[in-house]
Amino acid sequence: MDMSFIGSDMTDMSITGLQGPSRGRMGRRRLEDDDDDDKDFKSKNLHAERRRRQKLSDRLLTLRSIMNKATIIEDAITYIQDLQKTSQILSDQLLEMEGSSEEGGKPMRIEADAADDMKKCGIKEEVKVTKIDGNKLLIKIVIEKKRGCFTKLVEAMDYLGFELSETNVTTFKGAMLISSCLQGTYGDTLMVEQTQELLLEIIRNI
Amino acid sequence: MKVYEERCCSDSHSLTVCQGMATNSHNTLEDNLNLSSYNHHSHEDASAALELEIQQHYLLDNTTTNNSHLIPQLTQELSYDQSNWDADQQSFNMMPSSSSPEAAYSSTPDLLNLFHLPRCSILPNSSISFENAPASSVVYDPLFHLNLPPQPPLFRELLQSLPHGYTLPVDDKEFSGVGGLYHDGDNGILEFTRDISMAGRGKGRDKAGKTTKHFATERERRVHLNDKFQALRAMVPSPTKNDRASIVGDAIEYIKELLRTVRELKLLVEKKRCGQERSKRLKPEDAAAAADAGDVERKPLGDPDQCYNTSLRSSWLQRKSKDSEVDVRVIDDEVVIKLVQRKKINLLLFVSRLLDELQLDLQHVAGGNIGDYYSFLFNTKIYEGSSVYASAIANKLIDVVDKQYAAAPPTISTCL
User: Which of A88, A189, B185, B401 is the most buried (most CB within 10 A)?
Assistant: First the structure.
């Protein structure tokens, strides 16, 4: 009961070092004195540990006390520079490693699966355009998700003078759904059918 | 010219002498100018200088015969220069001089040349009161180009702030010890020396407030400290206000950010290294076989050269500029980017281009127009194999966005 409790404490405080020199005493004493010895070790270690912690905190306090505004600022500057250097070194290292690794195989595989997924779920590519308030059109586009498809879409739209304002894009099962408010970049009114045709054209070319 | 008149005082003559030695210029007008300004800066010093000089002349084994004439000439020169001053500058009567103006005028340049003594020995600034005067105090002296020895900034400031009158209150703290300067006649000179020496050595002049020596170092320290604050501010990527508290606050945030970045980078490097070692081991196998054996790869514990670092990579950053705001959060391989910019350019276009470049796969985008601003949220996934890190993303983003914003012409607001 007692022993086990003390035993766990002993390991916690890692006083294994103390057991060495005191083993002689342990050997000589009887079992009933083990309690006292263990308690002795515990308290000795406690004292030692406490003293060590006290010493550390005292020294830290002194360090803090000798700091004045100027040295604090200087230290901060030095520390920041140091961190910047470290991060620069690490990022260079990373860049270097980037070149030597070969991981190109995986993304292609994922994309190939995407088209399959989409077909399996019955999701079809589509474009739907409706007119809402004023100059705005609401569009809904479903396309097969490919790397960089969204960029191409937005670029094409920008080229045609379309500007997306309120936009929501989600991806699901290898398909991408874009629902967005569309306006003319230069404030011109957009016709529904015309827009629909243009968008379909864009999608076919992506 | 009038300024000089007003600033003349009983010691002007003594300063004349010292000044001449300091600058050693032949241009009398310039001399007078210099003298007057020098006059402003160290009355007591000059008088003490004169005093010292006299002592030195007595003590030194002068090499030139000229020097032996110095002392008697000095005393005479005092009045000469005074009259010279009067003659040239039409100053009001400070000390009735006896000698003729012409003689004084002609002798002044010679006298100036006569003093071959080195500057520092003449002027007691460096030796007596201002031995500890930091060199940087000289920098702030507008008369620095004249190569004057370090002047007590105290005097300079006070005197510069009194363009018209030379009346300094006697009970002014800084002058308390040498208050007698302006009122005593010859006695004053001797007293000045004593006072100056006291000022230099004694720190316990609490009655007087800050001693001149303290004032110099205190000011220098303050300016120095402000420079350091500015340096700190310059290092921070997006500084906000220019007051000390914000600077320190920004620095704290930046340091925390740097620590996060470094931690993230270390993790990435570690992972990359593990990946490379693993791929090296698998090299003899087919690429297809490696893909099939993907399960083996994903169980690092089975590998002899396993990565102990299986901790989750997480990091975040914020960057603010004048018109844009970027917030990037990375957890493992998912990156969430929030972007707010004043409505002007087609944000979606540029951002989606950049995301492709950074090898980020768009999963979800949501956003639109809010008042004057565009606000967007991007959920992305890092493509496998890419080791892009948070701060790179944020920095690039804010760069591109700002650049495009700046490049775009101002748009005509369209009413919708």
Answer: B401
